[in-house]
């Protein structure tokens, strides 16, 4: 069969994570076994750690079968493994007329992949033509036909009980970019990309070029892989941002509520315990915001790096310069730039919320300190009042002690005099000079009154080291001795 | 338990749930019940798809670190 008859008319890319080596092995084996033949390269191996190919982005392994309608190529692109299947026409009909047969083959291969249950990162179908004028509308028509195959089973006359699959009516748009001559080799190469087609399971491209080989095997998988990776990451980060924005919003509300509650608490004169609980809660929220801010910053960095990588890929593959048509590049750049802008906006909002939480912590902390200062002043006032009351009590006690001492002195004086007169006789006592009598009885009375006072104090202090006690005892003993001596001498 | 393992378990749970609802749809005796089970199957399949997408992104991000 002439080589012209084996022109590539379509391609399908199966993307897997490079680390899912076992699944890749299964998919490759299943697809190539169905095609028959043997691998073209001598070093046929799926040992991805030591690939058999030349450089990343080129076919690591090629599986080509003579006169077959399909060729297979395995390419590694920054963490992704791409199984590229190129479909060739086997007769002389124009490519677009051969598309239905190629699409049936693609469906069969997709069926094989689906039956294996391998986790695909993504799929892309590429249609190839050498005419650019009608490629866009034809691509839209093809996608419409594919979507119509998935109409509800009941409408399609399926058996009752079958699971119906509903798809939204596609609002397909076709973007067009001019390819760089370096990758398209010749002709007026154009790249078409269908978007908003409603089929989440795969992406659609079309290439209009007389020699699409390099575009299909190298350029398009690279560009497509970048778009897919960035798209997935952007979607993941967008969901993450949504969750973070919800959390931030809740925290903002809680911070406001705590500040309000704190005002009420202070007005009500409640203690510092509740405010300290608030500080602990605010600190936890501050920590959450700091973690969220870190996540958003990391996502922002990754998106920025991804966008730069995409820019580099677009710059290499698509035509640049004034007047060059680049709807594909513009579309994806705009979409991912908007994601990057959203990430930046969220980072700024998180920063504001974090500052608010920090300020709230400071405010509540200040209120705690003020409350503590107020409580200390109240305690000081209470202490002062207690001290003044104690002083008053002491003064009263002193007056009572003096009065009691005087009463004790008078009583002891009277009873000592009467007792002395009773024991020694009235005449004996009267014969003693009055001044001496007064001195003796006064000495006994004063010694007894002062002695009991000092003795009580000594017992209270559990110490006899008290000069007042000993002096009063000495006075008492001297007066008693004088009383006895005079009584004996005069009776 | 790390995030990857957690998501892989969640995917298995979604698959089991979808299978359970599929059996429910097959054995449903009235159209309304069958329709409900079919809706549940689609939800579980959607959850599985979302989880698979997130798992792939996490693996990619982890691979880039």
Short description:
The complex is a heterodimer of chains A (491) and B (65). With 491 residues, chain A is α+β, with helices and mostly antiparallel strands. Chain A is 64% helix and 12% strand.
Plain-language structure description:
The complex is a heterodimer of chains A (491) and B (65). Chain A is an alpha+beta fold and 491 residues long. Chain A is built from ten helices and eight strands. In chain A, a hairpin with a 7-residue loop joins strand 7 and strand 8. Chain B has 65 residues and is mostly helical. Chain B has two helices and no strands. In chain B, helix 1 runs antiparallel to helix 2. Chain B has a single domain, classed as Single alpha-helices involved in coiled-coils or other helix-helix interfaces. Chains A and B meet through helix 5 of A and helix 1 and helix 2 of B.
Molecular shape of chain A: rod-shaped
Return the CATH class of chain B: Mainly Alpha
- Continuous helix count of chain B: 2
How helix-rich are the residues of chain A, as a percent range?
55-70%
CATH fold topology of chain B: Single alpha-helices involved in coiled-coils or other helix-helix interfaces
Helices of chain A, by number, come to: 10
- Catalogue the unreliable spans of chain B: none
- The helix-strand sequence of chain B is HH
As a whole number of angstroms, the C-alpha radius of gyration of chain B is 15 Å
List its salient traits.
heterodimer, A: 491 residues, alpha+beta, Methane Monooxygenase Hydroxylase, Chain G, domain 1, 3 domains, eight-stranded mixed sheet, 10 helices, 64% helix, 12% strand, B: 65 residues, mainly alpha, Single alpha-helices involved in coiled-coils or other helix-helix interfaces
């Amino acid at each position: 069969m002439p080589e012209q008859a084996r022109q590539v008319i379509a391609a399908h890319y199966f993307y897997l994570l490079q680390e899912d080596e076992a699944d890749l092995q299964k998919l490759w084996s299943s697809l190539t076994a169905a095609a028959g033949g043997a691998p073209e390269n001598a070093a046929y191996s799926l040992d991805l750690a030591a690939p058999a190919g030349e450089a990343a982005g080129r076919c690591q392994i090629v599986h080509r079968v003579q006169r077959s309608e399909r060729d297979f190529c395995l390419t590694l692109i920054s963490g992704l493994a791409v199984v590229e299947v190129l479909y060739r026409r086997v007769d002389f009909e124009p490519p677009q007329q051969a598309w239905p047969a190629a699409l049936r083959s693609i469906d069969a291969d997709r069926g094989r992949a689906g039956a294996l249950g391998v986790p695909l990162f993504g799929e892309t179908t590429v249609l190839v033509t050498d005419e650019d004028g009608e490629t866009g509308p034809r691509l839209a028509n093809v996608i419409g036909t594919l979507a119509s195959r998935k109409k509800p089973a009941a409408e399609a006359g399926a058996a009752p009980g079958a699971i119906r699959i509903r798809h939204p009516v596609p609002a397909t748009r076709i973007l067009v970019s001019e390819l760089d001559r370096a990758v398209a080799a010749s002709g007026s190469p154009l790249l078409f990309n269908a978007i908003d087609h409603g089929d989440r399971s795969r992406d659609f491209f079309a290439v209009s070029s007389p020699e699409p080989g390099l575009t299909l095997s190298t350029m398009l998988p690279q560009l497509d892989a970048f778009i897919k990776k960035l798209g997935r990451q952007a979607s993941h980060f967008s969901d993450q941002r949504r969750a973070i924005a919800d959390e931030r919003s809740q925290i903002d509300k809680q911070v406001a509520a705590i500040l309000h509650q704190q005002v009420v608490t202070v007005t009500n004169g409640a203690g510092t315990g509740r405010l300290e609980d608030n500080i602990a809660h605010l600190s936890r929220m501050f920590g959450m915001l700091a973690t969220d801010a870190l996540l958003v910053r990391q996502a922002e960095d990754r998106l920025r790096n991804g966008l730069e990588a995409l820019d580099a890929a677009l710059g290499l593959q698509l035509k640049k310069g004034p007047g060059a048509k680049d709807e594909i590049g513009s579309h994806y750049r705009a979409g991912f730039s908007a994601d990057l802008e959203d990430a930046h906006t969220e980072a700024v909002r998180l920063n504001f919320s974090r500052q608010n939480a920090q300020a709230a912590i400071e405010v509540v902390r200040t209120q705690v300190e003020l409350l503590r200062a107020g409580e200390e002043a109240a305690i000081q006032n209470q202490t002062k009042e207690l001290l003044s009351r104690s002083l008053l009590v002491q003064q009263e006690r002193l007056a009572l002690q003096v009065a009691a001492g005087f009463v004790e002195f008078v009583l002891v004086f009277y009873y000592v005099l009467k007792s002395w007169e009773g024991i020694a006789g009235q005449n004996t006592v009267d014969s003693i000079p009055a001044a001496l009598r007064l001195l003796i009885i006064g000495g006994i009375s004063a010694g007894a009154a002062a002695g009991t006072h000092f003795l009580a104090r000594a017992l209270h202090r559990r110490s006899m080291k008290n000069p007042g006690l000993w002096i009063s005892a000495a006075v008492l003993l001297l007066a008693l001795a004088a009383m006895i001596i005079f009584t004996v001498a005069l009776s | 338990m790390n995030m990857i393992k957690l998501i892989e378990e969640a995917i298995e749970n979604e698959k089991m749930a979808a299978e359970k609802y599929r059996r429910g749809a097959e054995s449903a005796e009235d159209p309304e019940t069958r329709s409900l089970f079919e809706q549940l199957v689609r939800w579980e399949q959607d959850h599985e798809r979302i989880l698979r997408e997130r798992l792939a992104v996490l693996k990619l991000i982890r691979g880039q670190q």
